[in-house]
Design goal:
Number of strands: 8
Oligomer: single chain
Helix content: 40-55%
Order of helices and strands: EEHEHHEEHEEHHHEHHHH
Strand order of the largest sheet: 1-2-3-4-6-8
Amino acid sequence: MKTIELNIENNIASLTLNRPDVRNAFNDEMISEMTQAFSSLQEKGDVRCVFLKGAGKSFSAGGDLGWMKSMVDYTEEENIKDSEKLYEMYEALRAVPVPVVTLVHGHAMGGALGLIAASDIVLAVDETQFCFSEVRLGLAPAVISAFVKDKILPRDMSRYFLSAEVFGPEAAQQMGLIHEFGSEKAMQDQSEKILKKIINNGPVAVRETKKLISDLKTSSDIKSQTTKVIAKLRVGKEGQEGLKAFFEKRKPRWTEAP
C-alpha cells in the first residue's frame, strides 16, 4: 500500500497513516486503502487489537487540499458517491471487532476526527491541536457527525462544529473525544501498556464485549441482551478456562505466547 502501513505482530495490528509530507491528509487513494485495511482486519481472527497512529509531525490534517480541489467541479451525484466512500471508511474502522487504540499527535483536523471518534481508546500527545474545520471552507462536518455524535454531547458539537475553533487535548478530554493526554513518551508507553493489557484478556470475551457496547446503543431489550451474553460466555470454552485459571491461581492459557 502507498499511503498506509499495516503490520501484524504478536496479535497486534499496527496501522500507520503514511503521507507525512502532507500531514497524512486524506485523498481518494488513502481512503480506499484504509477502507481495505480496516475491512481486512474484520476477518483476521488472530488479531486481538489494533494500534492506529500517524507518521511524521501530525496524526492527520483531514482532507488533502489537492483531492478537495479536484472535487470542485463534481456534480452533486458525484459528490454523494465520494462522500459515501468516506463514510464507508469510518464504518469499516468502527466495525473492526477488536479494540482500536489510537495515538494522536500534532494536528487532528476535519476528517481525522472521524477516525478518532470511530476508535475505542484514544490517547493524545500534549500540544495536539484539534479542529472541526469544515465550516471554514463553507462545508459541514456531515459525514463524521454520524460517528462523533456517539462520543461527545450535542452542546459540544454545537460549539466546535459551528465555531471551527482550534482546541487542545484538555478540551478534547473533557468532551469525551480522547481518554488521556501527556508527553509523547508517556503516551507511547501508555499505548503499549493498554495494548498489552488487551491481549492478556480473553480474546473471545473482548470481541463479545466490544459487540455488546455497540449493541446496547440500539437494543430494545437490554435485559435479554445482557443476560444472554454472560450466559454464553460462562459456558464457553474460554470462559470455563478463565474461571478455572482464576480458582487455580494460574494464568489462563490464552496468555501463552503464540
